[in-house]
Amino acid sequence: MHLRRPATAVAAATICVALGLTACGSDSDDSATGSTPGGKTTLTVSLFGTFGYKEAGLFDKYQADHPEITIKYDSTEQEKNYWTALQTKLASGSGASDVQAIEVGRITDVAQNQGDKWLDLKGTSAGAQVASYPAWKEAAATTKDGAVLGLGTDIGPTGICYRTDLMKAAGLPSDPAELATKLTSWDDYIAMGEQFKSKAPKGAAWTDAAGGLYNVVVSTESKIYYDESGQLIWNTNPAVKHAYDLAAKAGQDGLTAKLGQFTPEWDSGFGKGSFATIACPSWMIGYIKGKAGDAGSGKWNVTTLPGGVGGNWGGAYLSIPKQSKHQKQAADLIKWLTDPEQQATVFNKVGNFPSNKGAFTLVADTKDDYFSGAAIGKVFGDIAASAPTQIHGKDDGTIQNQISTALQSVETNHVAPDKAWATLNDTLKNQLG
Amino acid sequence: MSDVSSAAAAGASPDTASSTASTASGGSGEGPSSQDAPPPASVRVGERRRRTWRQRAFRFEAKAAPYAYVSPFFLIFAAFGLFPLVNTVWISLHEYKLGSEMTWIGLDNFRWLFSNPLFYNALWKTFTIGVLSTVPQLLLALALAHLLNYSMRVRTFFRVSMITPYATSVAAATLVFSELFARDAGFANWILSWFGVGPVDWRNGNWTAQVAIAIIVTWRWTGYNALIYLAGMQSISQDLYEAAAIDGASRWQQFRHVTLPGLRPTILFTIVVSTIGATQLFGEPLLFGNGSADGGAVHQYQTIGLFMYQQGWQYLQLGKAAAVAWVTFLIIVVLVLFNTAIVRWRTRSER
């Protein structure tokens, strides 16, 4: 009998702990977002890929100028993983950082469907910045009610980056200006690819992936998957079909290295010289430097898209979730990070092209030794000036992803392009309803 | 019982309450001594009350304690097992994109699911990868266990080392195997090149990708199953082997006629467990495809787990994902029942 009592007590205690655990499970812990007693504020910043703030020392500089602020920063390599985690935190109402980045492919979804989750930046110190942006950049982040939910960090003026050594080896021009005159259309680009293929060094393809080629071809269009009224037009838009056919042909003809973008094999392809050319939004400059390493220095160059048309691929925004406990300080940080000077610093460091108009002149003279001394400031500035104003829709990301998958099935699984297109139609119809 | 309790309730006064408290604190040793000299009436009432209170508490405890002992499991199960299960049904009846409101749509998600060719593709791939991995896995495990059942040097070392692949994380194992099966500089292709076989694009081929994943699964689970078989073999009487040996049975005959029949329940257990594991296959194909939930460009290795993950965490369509989850759950239940039915049928036919 005397044994039983303590045992019951233990059992009861276990139950209490179990209940306590379940009850506490959803509580937010203050330590993650809280301020320390000394008046110091810890700002959490979550980004994906490379934004360049850390790399360019901007966080350190901000902390030095604002001793009361401590910045806790993290970055997720793959945007899709970042986005999923963020959505969970938004839905549960806790865990999001004070500053969160949003990719351009998501911004329409945010502006249309998540207006209640994000802070209207117009009412904050960062609001003054809105006027400094190209109208289309900020329009994408604006809700029906006129709230601005994100400030642009960069845009993605797109050219073609190429390996000068591989071009020379295949007997093709390696000077960007000469190359630009030879490439007057995408058909020229494919034709040059055939030339390259016949004389190329072993193991080198003309371009990295059919999906990458597709992305850059549609990046020159203003209407892609949605029209002005927000209707889905992706399967009736001739521009999409044209880009698809072109990329599928390149894939079928063996002009691609068949490397899925943003996979480890793709990454190592930059250094190994697995491909001679790659669609190159300005942010790719930093990516190439990171993956090709010092050995690639001086081997790369950049030229404009065929026909000199402007393309735009990517670009992101900085936003503050309403659940943030330090909205004012977060807004101050965003304001500072999106100032022209800081955007110019980031461009010089990692190549993310500024989206603040004030920064355009600051970067105009930038040259890059890694890219054979190319005047990347002028090249990407000119492309940005002629880039189209794109219409975005909430399912852009899903559609783009599935088109890439369809093109991959053409290049790696030898599916006929028409069949892959039909499958794509079924899949997207099934998924988007 | 009822009159005692009412008397106890009636006799409640500050006096008796304090005496009860004092005797209770005095411990159970006071019980016998109080019977020698009859105590004052009020104390006797308290005494009776005390005993009955204890008896009732004891009875209550005897009845309730088992429930208290088992309750932690059931409470945790209710919170983390039952509630999610029921909530999943609820969500599956809604259109629910993460971050927006839930809308009731009845069985539309299930209609969508059963008319989706990708769902049937995922079911088929789950089945083929399941067969490709489970069958060799169990056969290898059986062979290994049989070998390890004989006396040999450093037997314990071999037995322990079999469990190491199982102890490895899925992520680590899969990343290593991804490298081994790489197209351009992979180890597997290097071996094949000795035999004049050209480089195989493992990841993009239909069957090659499935075989590669099945190899990862087999590598991880063979040792685990072998240990279970070994444990089963230990319970088979050594006398049977000796008798068989005296009768001139070879080792193979011993295996067939002694080991296998004795191991039947164990084998069925591992088949059930492996079937469930194969139905839920997720980590290996996800990581093998570099974290893409597509399971290859033509979904050549998209299992039902990946399909569900894609709906839920790539498209954020939690309603659809919940429908997939429930259908998967039902499939597993059916498979288990099917397995059990086979066992019953086998045992009955043997009698």
From TrEMBL, chain A:
Q: Which residues form a coiled coil?
A: none
Q: Where are the transmembrane segments?
A: none
Q: Which domain of life is it from?
A: Bacteria
Which keywords describe this protein according to UniProt?
Signal
Q: Which Pfam families match?
A: SBP_bac_8 (PF13416)
Where does the signal peptide begin and end? 1-23
For this entry, the protein name equals Extracellular solute-binding protein
Organism in which the protein naturally occurs: Angustibacter luteus
TrEMBL record, chain B:
- This one is known as Carbohydrate ABC transporter permease
Say where the protein is mainly found: membrane
Q: Where are the transmembrane segments?
A: 64-86, 122-145, 157-177, 207-231, 266-283, 323-343
Return the CDD domains for the record: TM_PBP2
Species source reads Angustibacter luteus
Record keyword Cytoplasm present? no
Note the superkingdom of the native organism: Bacteria
Q: Where are the annotated segments for Disordered? A: 1-48
- Keywords in alphabetical order: Cell membrane, Membrane, Transmembrane, Transmembrane helix, Transport
- Residue ranges of the ABC transmembrane type-1 domain? 123-339
Q: InterPro entries, alphabetically?
A: ABC_transporter_permease (IPR051393), MetI-like (IPR000515), MetI-like_sf (IPR035906)
The keyword Repressor is annotated on this UniProt entry: no
Q: Which Gene3D superfamilies match?
A: MetI-like
Which compartments is it annotated to reside in? Cell membrane
Family statement: Belongs to the binding-protein-dependent transport system permease family.
Its placement in the membrane is given as: Multi-pass membrane protein
Q: Where is the composition biased (Low complexity)?
A: 1-25
